[in-house]
């Protein structure tokens, strides 16, 4: 492989990150966005202090053949690395299903990776016109939603998910995100309540859920064929 994947961390076993399968998660180093609630800020830099050599990852996977069913490429933002698709193909050759967690920072790169994946967990940060308030990067919302179009065209199984910090999003905004996703044809949507123990921006205040939140969950459950709220 011409460019070895830079992996900043590994979860050796999870039942949560690829629906229905036993998987491991590879946390790819590097992210171009600065999401204020990010709980993996150590992965933002292009190079990390705790990187795991790709050869070591392959050795680990060979030892898990017949035990694990899937490998999930997460981040950071995996699609920013030029070696991602080749790494995904190597993993598939070892007999694993391939999962991808992404926010589609570069739509053209995401489109290539989505076609190489069996399942994609896709992060919708906010409405396209408001995403900069979360990511800190101009144009991030347009890239995010353009990549959603690539995802839906790819044929990969998927789940769209939005992380909610009630200081950054409110009930009306979350509902509008849901409406817009459904208009795109999205059928699988998850809301993930933020993990506040460790965030890129430690000044974000802890805000209680609004009183209307249960009504919001009910309305989203009626809007989507498949909807879930994840609270931790």
UniProtKB/TrEMBL annotation:
<keyword id="KW-0479">Metal-binding</keyword>
<dbReference type="InterPro" id="IPR013785">
    <property type="entry name" value="Aldolase_TIM"/>
</dbReference>
<keyword id="KW-0004">4Fe-4S</keyword>
<dbReference type="InterPro" id="IPR007197">
    <property type="entry name" value="rSAM"/>
</dbReference>
<feature type="domain" description="Radical SAM core">
    <location>
        <begin position="26"/>
        <end position="155"/>
    </location>
</feature>
<keyword id="KW-0949">S-adenosyl-L-methionine</keyword>
<dbReference type="Pfam" id="PF04055">
    <property type="entry name" value="Radical_SAM"/>
</dbReference>
<keyword id="KW-0411">Iron-sulfur</keyword>
<dbReference type="InterPro" id="IPR058240">
    <property type="entry name" value="rSAM_sf"/>
</dbReference>
<protein>
    <submittedName>
        <fullName>Anaerobic ribonucleoside-triphosphate reductase activating protein</fullName>
    </submittedName>
</protein>
<dbReference type="InterPro" id="IPR034457">
    <property type="entry name" value="Organic_radical-activating"/>
</dbReference>
<dbReference type="InterPro" id="IPR012840">
    <property type="entry name" value="NrdG2"/>
</dbReference>
<keyword id="KW-0408">Iron</keyword>
